[in-house]
């Protein structure tokens, strides 16, 4: 055990975990909007919209996240035409590519979570809203969405943790996130166990925090 | 299309063998995972606090730490650990572990943590009366487990195990960092030498979609088989 290496690498890994957190929060926020949009499309009676949303979630849940990042970073960045457009500003940065890939990925999972949450809302609740003369738009925003959010909290908590682990793939497109720095230290010092303990500890701490925040929210909004 | 030709001119046969490799790694990892689940599920269900702690540490660490980090641990630490064990037995030469074993083992450990949770949930949801009935019938411990508990556990666990399988299958893509030539690695090599990454990574995506689709169909059949009589 090389305690000195562990102590020395801790600040480096800690500052790298800021990038991990940035990636995570950006993709969760964008992903939540994508998820909500596609969940609503899935519940739509229009068959075309419905199939489109199903296809989206099938595509992103059926392929590894690594493939998605590579397609966006290496694949799209290689198209000559795209290099001449404004999009190139975004696509040439691994940081933005990673966020796009993560957002699309978590969006697909979130849409499934929200869809099943919407479907478990008892029709009686919506009917009660209607019988009170509340317009259906307000029923949706004030009744269905809050209930769906509460219903999907436990599953969404899992998704956050999965996404936290998913951000480690950013290191494959040259980003120095927590895993990227950990790999760099391992490959220069050849002390995998020590670095694994420190980096893994930071990850575990983050999952611990997420887990408890979700638990707290579940308790707060339980009914 | 000529990029996908079989033979020396295209990447078709390479991608085909890479797909077989992905399937082989995924199945091996899943089996290693079952082996870990077989050890840790009883520990999780045991009344002994210490044994509980061991099993919980295992599942918490694996489910809270990124897969890639676990793979790096075994990739960089694997041969050192084996060499350490070998040196105890007086063997001092350098030992290199095959990329297949490193990959299958690291994905297997990850998959094992998920399988453990699935089996624990399934066994806990079996009606208590079933255990009591088996006791009343005077079945032996083995008979009780293999004839009464296991078949029911399998039925209850199958839908969730299919999720674990899908996760394991997709996780195998991460093994590319160890250099094992599976779908992702092969696409990476092909993309590098033809300078057409979009095409080859899309091929990889299609291959993974095909594998997940196929396994979903097979698992649905199994589920039908095991839910006979319900």
Structure description:
The complex is a heterodimer of chains A (223) and B (230). Chain A has helices at residues 3-43, 47-62, 65-75, 80-84, 87-91, 94-119, 123-131, 136-166, 178-189, 192-220. Chain A is an all-alpha fold and 223 residues long. Chain A has one domain (3-220): MetI-like (MetI-like fold, Orthogonal Bundle). The radius of gyration of chain A is 21 Å and the shape is flat. The N and C termini of chain B lie far apart (49 Å). Helices cover 78% and strands 0% of the residues of chain B. Chain B has helices spanning 12-45, 49-64, 67-88, 99-124, 128-136, 141-171, 183-194, 197-226. The interface between A and B is large, with 40 and 37 residues.
The major sheet of chain B is characterized as: none
Largest interface, chains and sizes: A-B, 40 and 37 residues
* Largest beta-sheet details of chain A: none
CATH topology of chain B: MetI-like fold
Tally of strands of chain A: 0
Distance from N terminus to C terminus of chain A (CA atoms, Å) equals 50 Å
Helix content class of chain A = over 70%
Brief digest:
By secondary structure, chain A is mainly α. Chain A is built from ten helices and no strands. Chain A has one domain: MetI-like fold (Orthogonal Bundle), CATH 1.10.3720.10.
Layout: helices, strands, pairs:
The complex is a heterodimer of chains A (223) and B (230).
Chain A: H1 3-43, H2 47-62, H3 65-75, H4 80-84, H5 87-91, H6 94-119, H7 123-131, H8 136-166, H9 178-189, H10 192-220
Helix pairs in contact in A: 1-2, 1-6, 1-9, 1-10, 2-6, 3-6, 6-8, 7-8, 8-10, 9-10
Chain B: H1 12-45, H2 49-64, H3 67-88, H4 99-124, H5 128-136, H6 141-171, H7 183-194, H8 197-226
Helix pairs in contact in B: 1-2, 1-4, 1-6, 1-7, 2-4, 3-4, 4-6, 6-8, 7-8
């Amino acid at each position: 055990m090389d305690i000195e290496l562990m102590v020395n690498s801790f600040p480096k890994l800690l500052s790298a975990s800021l990038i991990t957190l940035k990636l995570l929060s950006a993709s969760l926020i964008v992903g939540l909007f994508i998820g909500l949009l596609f969940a609503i499309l899935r519940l739509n009676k229009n068959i075309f919209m419905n199939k489109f949303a199903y296809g989206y979630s099938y595509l992103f849940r059926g392929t590894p996240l690594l493939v998605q990042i590579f397609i966006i970073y290496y694949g799209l960045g290689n198209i000559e035409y795209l290099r001449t457009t404004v999009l190139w500003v975004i696509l040439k940065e691994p940081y933005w590519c990673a966020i796009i890939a993560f957002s699309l990925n978590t969006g697909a999972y979130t849409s499934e979570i929200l869809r099943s949450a919407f479907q478990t809302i008892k029709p009686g609740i919506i009917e009660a809203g209607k019988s009170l003369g509340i317009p259906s738009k307000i029923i949706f925003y004030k009744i269905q969405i809050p209930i769906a959010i509460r219903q999907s909290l436990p599953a969404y908590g899992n998704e956050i943790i999965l996404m936290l682990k998913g951000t480690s793939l950013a290191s494959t497109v040259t980003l120095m996130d927590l895993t990227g720095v950990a790999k760099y230290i391992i490959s220069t010092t050849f002390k995998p166990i020590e670095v694994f303990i420190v980096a893994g500890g930071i990850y575990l701490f983050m999952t611990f925090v997420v887990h408890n925040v979700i638990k707290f929210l579940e308790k707060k909004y339980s009914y | 299309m000529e990029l996908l030709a079989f033979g020396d001119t295209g990447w078709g046969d390479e991608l085909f063998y890479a797909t077989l490799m992905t399937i082989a790694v995924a199945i091996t990892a899943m089996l290693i995972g079952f082996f870990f689940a077989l050890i840790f599920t009883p520990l999780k269900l045991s009344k002994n606090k210490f044994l509980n702690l061991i099993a919980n540490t295992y599942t918490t660490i694996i489910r809270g730490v990124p897969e890639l980090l676990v793979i790096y641990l075994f990739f960089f630490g694997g041969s050192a650990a084996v060499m350490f064990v070998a040196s105890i037995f007086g063997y001092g030469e350098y030992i290199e572990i095959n990329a297949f074993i490193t990959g299958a083992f690291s994905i297997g450990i990850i998959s094992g943590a998920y399988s453990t949770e699935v089996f624990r949930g399934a066994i806990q949801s079996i009606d208590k009366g079933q255990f009591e009935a088996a006791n009343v019938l005077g079945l032996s411990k083995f008979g009780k487990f293999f004839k009464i508990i296991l078949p029911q556990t399998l039925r209850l666990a199958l839908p969730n195990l299919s999720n674990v399988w899908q996760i394991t299958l997709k996780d195998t893509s991460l093994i590319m960092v160890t250099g094992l030539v599976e779908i992702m690695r092969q696409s990476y090599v092909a993309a590098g030498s033809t300078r057409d990454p979009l095409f080859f990574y899309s091929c990889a995506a299609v291959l993974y979609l095909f594998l997940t689709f196929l396994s979903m169909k097979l698992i649905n059949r199994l589920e039908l088989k095991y839910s006979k009589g319900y």
